[in-house]
């Protein structure tokens, strides 16, 4: 099928590329000419394993195109996906101005001669947004235009998005238009995955409800970790025992510094706001949010307890991305940890396999900080090592090399990557979470 994706951010670019990979003809639209030129050259402005290779191969095969023209995209695509940012506002609500603007632009490009078009919300949006999109298109489109509106939420995880899109565990399609649903089912025919067809409101709620539940699991195990520390239990064993129950599962039961990134913090705030606006306050999610905020302060308190003060102490910080296998530092807990240490006068030597550039550009880190590609180099003369991101390389680090390079053999593991017994055997004073 002929598909158009408006917006080549993380969701739009990965979705469009994977649609092209399974054989669809895809046109991606972005209003940034430099970005479009970069993508046409087969280069990707974000780090996502496997994505750049797929962009290059599908551009070369002619299945993936990029343009700055919304009109070109509307003319070429039978199905038009909206994948633009939906940033949070101070009150927790979602800024839908980009969605509204794109809906207007699509409407103004539609003509009766083009035939039926399906307009799909791919961005994460509050329930009832589909109704607003439909109203906007009807208001600004010429008379006689035929179209349907669909909600098709994405469930990709940064760091493994290509696999998530090519091999999804489910596809959710929500619409009140049977014709639009038929188009969407045809798009997803090449993907081997269960397809859930719902009304549009249910589809919009599914994404917020799913992310909020996953965040709940993270905050739950972090709360349990605090109880483990107070009682002398091991949160890793507790999580293993909980996760063996098939009704619960082991995923997202990893104690640590808490959740971050561009989705969970925003989506929890949005779901709280949505529930309150509907007259159904969601107090449980407020507690989930509070536990997540408190987790960072608890970890900082552990570091202060050992170092006494941060001022003029050199800290080696391993990890700046919000999670492994991405260069994304949006709402990164590691970045927030770094900011707090710097604000208290620490000298930070930071490293990350992929996020050094994005951290320097977007991290807003001020103070005495240096950036290093060699993770062991950060240790030289440091008063402590702090692990902020769960990169596999940190879990496999040479503990004796860490001991040799540190001024004092203190390791604060915010992701529970290192075995405490191995750390002790290497002569390290090791502090982690919940064990």
UniProtKB/TrEMBL annotation:
It catalyses: UDP-alpha-D-glucose + 2 NAD(+) + H2O = UDP-alpha-D-glucuronate + 2 NADH + 3 H(+). This is UDP-glucose 6-dehydrogenase. Belongs to the UDP-glucose/GDP-mannose dehydrogenase family. One of its GO terms (molecular function) is oxidoreductase activity. Signal peptide: none annotated. Transmembrane segments: none annotated. Keywords: NAD, Oxidoreductase. It comes from Luteolibacter soli. It holds the Pfam family UDPG_MGDP_dh_N. Pathway: Nucleotide-sugar biosynthesis; UDP-alpha-D-glucuronate biosynthesis; UDP-alpha-D-glucuronate from UDP-alpha-D-glucose: step 1/1.
